[in-house]
Specification:
heterodimer; A: about 300 residues; alpha/beta; Rossmann fold; 2 domains; six-stranded parallel sheet; 10 helices; 12 strands; B: about 600 residues; alpha+beta; Beta-Lactamase; Heat Shock Protein 90; six-stranded antiparallel sheet; five-stranded antiparallel sheet; 15 helices
Chain lengths: ~300, ~600
């Protein structure tokens, strides 16, 4: 074999080896591309319609992104301490990422020490102050409160009572947004936190009542006050939507739970794959009334196709 | 530009191959041809295979779309049949004034409840006449505002399918909101003796429709969706994401496509789209296949093709190297053998192996070489013969001239009645000729050559009447050394003719012979007129005209010595005007063990 032939043979062989290495690398990396991520979602709201629609979004995203999703439920019967230790146990478990969806007791998150957690954490519904590394998918609660107030003002409400059965960060934010708008409009209001103990007699007849969470609104719908006072609220369940349709509730401020669930897992994947997407995603909120209940976009927001 | 580049490249290649070995040229030609053939074949194969694959995938996808179309068509026709069945078997046969149709409707509902959510019959005023399963109408809901109701009455001859929507007709105690597709048609209701128009509504479960698509997927990430004639989505695998703004679909544009396959670019992605219209409803099934999934032009496939090609290149290089070596080895051997002949060394064998052509060529060259050798031998032989003839001629030139003079002296002596001197002369002459002959030998001992010269000198001394004297001084050691015959006599002759001719009795010739190192130096010196340096320089130069022909003998002697012993040896002339000349023969020391020094003179 001559010098040129040797050179040609060696060059082609080197190319061949490089190509082989490239193919092997691609095969290996493509295997990684279809890797299944294990994600745990910790939630304290497993029975509500909110969770059902969020779950639909999560399920869809889990299918799209090859995610093995495990739901860890913090039951309402558990004490805060028990919930906290349960949550901490899960944080130490072997998962690729964690989604925290604390609707009933979002303040629980404030008690956790997350500094030692190495896996990505995505918060659903709430923004965790002080943890810039934690991604969040939420609706601006203050905006929801503000929108609710605007709708009530639009309806000519002059006196209103704010109702909430839960006392947590989200509700406080909603209240702040609501009160700010009401104050600006000069509408008289009073804040109440326990529907059972409220002195309804002291409230002017026909005064509108705004509920800042679903449980208090559901309670209100079943109370005599609903017959004399127009009800408004934030959040929705199928029962509340039936009440809205029947006229028992005048307006609801709702959020896109399906999108929130879907985006939460999308954000998880982005975090695992170190994609530079936004850490904090805030979704819009919508006004639902009986007239537009079956129209788009409300129809798909409230009754998502699973 | 392209042509000139091609011309330049091909010119360069041709020029390079012309300078290269035949083996390299064969290898290069074979390799380039093989690679070009492989690449072309590979490309053709690749393109053909890609097309076939694309066509196969396209056909499979079209087949799948067609199947789903048939499934949807069958489903819709089933629903139409149910609707017709309710109408013709139940509603047409009943007088609602006196009979209830509730039980018959319930019966049919029970049969098809996996597809149907509700069956309801309304009169033209929108009042509910019957429903299955039994349900209460929602307060405040006026079906006359609903599109399905209006369409049914507006086009009474048709049955109408709506797009999916949340049912908003009946009270649901469990607060369930049902997604349905409404099938509505105008019906005639008998009430007593009158007939009136009404609307039959069958709310189809959306899931029963979506299930037809749920497990259908096209090749390589392709999917199917269903839309109405206006492009409004009825089913889409990402319908909820599209509604939430998290995904997009090109449905409004696809609504304008004709049935069949076509390409579209949507959000930077090229896709193959197959559209098929569902009978009766005008709904359209759209199959979307990303182009990346259709073609073989993916990076992985290209890399594998490149890998195979490179592997083949490597194999081709090895095979071509082997073949070119095998093919050109006989030529190489032939060339080497010709080169060996060219450079000499005695070997004249030409390689005659390999293929027929090479063997034939080798045999031809061998013939030529043999002929050449013979010709060369002939030329050498002729040359030698010629030289010998010339020498013989030279020798024969000496003898007649000298013989004439010698005989003249003898005659003269006989006339002068000097018989004793005449006898001496005759004796010397006889001895001189005896040595001249030397039985044909060319190499004789120095003593014989000196004796020959002595005889010659004696005769010449007689002739010149003692105008000169001579002296011979020989070492005993040189007497038995070899010398070429008759090389001293011409020198002596020159010394007599050109040195002594003008002397007046005091000329002297001295002959000495010594061994100097490895050489025999034999000098003939005279005290004659001598020569100028320029004359001396010209004496031994070939073709130089010498006055009076005096240099011929000297040149011959010089040439003979060189011919016999080589260029190293020859004649050395030392001369000085009016002082004399000394000519020295430089010869190798060769002992005269045998009578003839064989081989030495055969150069």
């Amino acid at each position: 074999m001559g010098k040129s032939e040797k050179l040609a043979f060696i060059s082609v062989t080197v190319l061949l080896i490089c190509l082989l290495i490239l193919i092997v690398v691609r095969v290996i990396t493509s295997k990684d591309a279809v890797r299944v991520y294990r994600v745990s979602i910790i939630t304290d709201d497993v029975q509500g319609d909110y969770s059902a629609n969020v779950q639909k979004g999560l399920d869809r995203a889990a299918r799209d992104y090859n995610i093995d999703l495990q739901v860890i439920a913090l039951h309402s019967g558990m004490t805060t301490e028990q919930q906290k230790s349960s949550l901490e146990r899960e944080l130490e478990a072997d998962t690729d990422a964690i989604i925290i969806n604390l609707q009933q007791n979002p303040s629980l998150s404030e008690q956790l020490d997350l500094s030692a957690i190495s896996v990505p954490i995505v918060s659903l519904g709430t923004v965790w102050d002080g943890y810039s590394s934690i991604r969040s998918i939420s609706t601006d609660d203050a905006s929801m409160g503000n929108l609710l107030a605007q709708e009530m003002i639009k309806d000519g409400v002059t006196v209103c009572v704010i109702r909430a059965s839960l006392d947590n960060t989200r509700i406080r934010l909603r209240e702040a947004g609501f009160v700010k708008t009401m104050k600006a409009a000069g509408v008289a209001y009073s804040s109440e936190w326990d529907p059972d103990t409220i002195a309804w007699e002291s409230i002017p007849k026909g005064a509108a009542v705004a509920a800042l969470d679903e449980p208090s609104l559901e309670k209100l719908v079943g109370m005599p006050v609903a017959a004399i006072s127009p009800l408004y609220g934030i959040g929705y369940t199928n029962a509340l939507l039936s009440s809205l349709e029947s006229g028992a509730i005048r307006r609801l401020i709702v959020e896109d739970d399906y999108a929130m669930g879907y985006l939460a897992l999308q954000s998880v994947v982005d975090a695992i794959e170190n994609k530079g997407t936004a850490h904090e995603q805030i979704l819009g909120c919508y006004v639902a009334d009986a007239k537009h209940l079956y129209q788009e976009p409300l129809q798909h927001i409230l009754f998502p196709i699973s | 530009m392209g042509k000139s580049l091609f011309r330049a490249l091909s010119g360069k290649l041709v020029s390079r191959t012309e300078r290269s070995s035949i083996r390299y040229t064969v290898f290069l030609s074979f390799t380039i041809s093989a690679i070009v053939a492989m690449v072309l074949t590979g490309m053709l194969f690749y393109i053909n295979f890609s097309r076939q694959l694309e066509q196969t995938i396209q056909n499979e996808n079209e087949m799948l779309v067609k199947q789903v179309n048939q499934s949807v068509d069958t489903y819709l026709r089933d629903m139409l049949r149910i609707s017709n069945s309710i109408y013709y078997n139940v509603i047409k046969n009943v007088d609602i004034e006196s009979d209830s149709i509730q039980s018959e409707m319930q019966l049919l509902y029970g049969t098809y409840d996996s597809y149907i959510e509700n069956i309801a019959l309304y009169n033209a005023e929108g009042e509910l006449i019957a429903t299955a399963p039994p349900a209460l109408s929602k307060q405040g809901v006026d079906v006359r505002d609903a599109a399905w109701f209006q369409k049914a009455l507006d086009r009474a001859e048709n049955l109408h399918f709506s797009t999916p929507a949340i049912q908003n007709l009946f009270v649901n105690a469990e607060h369930r909101f049902l997604r349905v597709v409404s099938l509505s048609s105008a019906v005639e209701i008998t009430s007593g003796k009158n007939t009136m128009q009404g609307v039959l509504l069958i709310d189809l479960k959306y899931n029963s429709l979506s299930e037809l698509f749920d497990h259908m997927s096209l090749a390589n990430g392709g999917y199917l969706y269903l839309m109405d004639a206006n492009g409004e989505l009825i089913y889409h695998p990402e319908q909820q994401l599209i509604a939430s703004g998290l995904a997009k679909e090109n449905n409004l544009v696809a609504a304008t496509y004709h049935d069949g396959g076509q390409m579209e670019t949507f959000r930077g992605e090229t896709r193959s789209v197959i559209v098929r219209t569902v009978g009766y409803t005008g709904w359209r099934i759209v199959g979307v296949i990303p182009q990346q999934g259709l073609a073989l032009n993916q990076v992985d496939n290209l890399m594998i093709v490149a890998f195979i090609l490179l592997l083949l290149f490597d194999i081709v290089i090895l095979i071509n190297s082997f073949i070119s070596t095998k093919l050109t080895a006989p030529i190489k051997h032939l060339e080497e053998s010709v080169q060996a002949v060219e450079y000499g060394g005695g070997n004249t064998d030409i390689y005659q192996g390999g293929s027929y052509e090479i063997r034939h060529l080798g045999a031809s060259i061998q013939g030529m070489v043999d002929q050449l050798q013979e010709l060369t031998d002939d030329i050498v032989r002729e040359h030698e013969q010629k030289q010998k003839s010339e020498l013989d001629a030279l020798q024969s030139q000496i003898n007649p001239h000298f013989l004439y003079n010698a005989l003249d002296i003898i005659v003269w002596m006989i006339e002068k009645e000097q018989p004793k001197e005449a006898v001496n002369i005759v004796t010397a002459l006889a001895r001189l000729f005896r040595i001249s002959l030397s039985r044909g030998k060319n190499i004789i001992p120095v003593r014989d050559e000196i004796e020959h010269v002595q005889n010659y000198l004696m005769i010449q001394k007689m002739r010149y009447k003692n105008k000169f004297s001579y002296e011979i001084d020989l070492d005993e050691a040189v007497k038995n050394l070899s010398i070429i015959k008759l090389v001293v006599q011409p020198l002596v002759e020159n010394a007599i003719y050109h040195g002594m001719d003008f002397m007046d009795g005091d000329g002297k010739i001295t002959i000495t012979a010594r061994v100097v190192g490895e050489e025999l130096h034999l000098s003939v010196a005279d005290n004659g007129l001598g020569m100028k340096p320029e004359v001396v320089e010209r004496l031994l130069v070939e073709n130089t005209p010498v006055s009076k022909g005096s240099g011929v003998g000297l040149k011959n002697v010089n040439e003979r010595i060189k011919l016999y012993f080589g260029d190293k040896y020859g004649v050395m002339i030392e001369s000085e005007p009016d002082a004399g000349t000394c000519i020295t023969l430089i010869l190798p020391v060769v002992h005269c063990e045998t009578e003839e020094v064989s081989g030495v003179g055969e150069k």
